[in-house]
Amino acid sequence: MSETYLSTNRTMAEDGDFYVEANCCLLCGVPEDVAPEIFQTGKDYCFVIRQPCSPKEVDRTIRAMWASEVDCVRYRGRDPLMLERLARAGMKDQADYGESLNTPLLARDTVSFEMPEVRSHMTPVWFAHEFRADLRGKGKIVLPALFGKHSVWVSWFKNRFHRVHFADAGQGRFVASLGPTSAVQGLGWLLDDWLIAKGAKDIFWEKTGDPTSKSRTPI
Predict the structure, then answer these.
(1) Model's pTM, two decimal places?
(2) 180 upstream amide cis, omega within 30 of 0
(3) How far apart are CA 92 and CA 71, in angstroms?
């Protein structure tokens, strides 16, 4: 597999499992923003410059598939675990060999985490306050704490608010529950980015009541 750039919007990496469908890209800029080591924008559309080589690069590539404005990033591999992961994320239609999958959508709506050093002020109310303040600082619409000091209600489109509720899980761990909301994946990525920026560690996502669904990412 080569990372050599060609004279057109194509690279030798196009023969790998992940690729951008021809005549589909709208130059939305999302793939190269999420995974710049994997995607690059050419004159007319983005393309894969190399295949992901590590678990984190795979995670970012899948997130780019999910976040893109149109479903141009595709997977043509046959790895059963990857196909299942895409199906559980609602993206089996972006897999060339995903049409026969009967795997249901899996919405991971709970995340547990811990901080490198837990201090007395780090309570569920504190996490909610910090998350609320940081979201407002980024221009998100957030309801006041009067609606519950342990919860954050955020909207990024009109008046459709989505809830994140923080709680103490004991033994130095905390948990945040999402929803109920139809925007679990988007809200999950928003919270995941924030937790990482705050220095949280041992972050694990799962669907409420299903410990077998544990994952280090929302999808």
Answers:
(1) 0.86
(2) yes
(3) 11
Phi/psi at 167 (nearest 5 deg)? -150, 160
pLDDT at 8: 38
Q: What is the mean pLDDT of residues 70-96?
A: 94
What average pLDDT score do residues 2-24 get?
60
**Domains 12-94 and 110-215 alike in fold:** no
Choosing among 3.30.70.20, 3.50.50.60, 3.40.50.300, 2.40.128.50, the CATH entry for 12-94 is 3.30.70.20
Which residues are registered as beta bridge partners of 174?
A: 113, 168
pLDDT tops 90 at residue 28:
no
Distance CA 121, CA 127 (A): 9
Residues 114 and 75: their CA atoms lie apart, in Å, by: 34
What single letter denotes the amino acid at residue 110?
T
How would you classify residue 90: left for phi > 0, otherwise alpha for psi between -120 and 50, otherwise beta? Answer: left
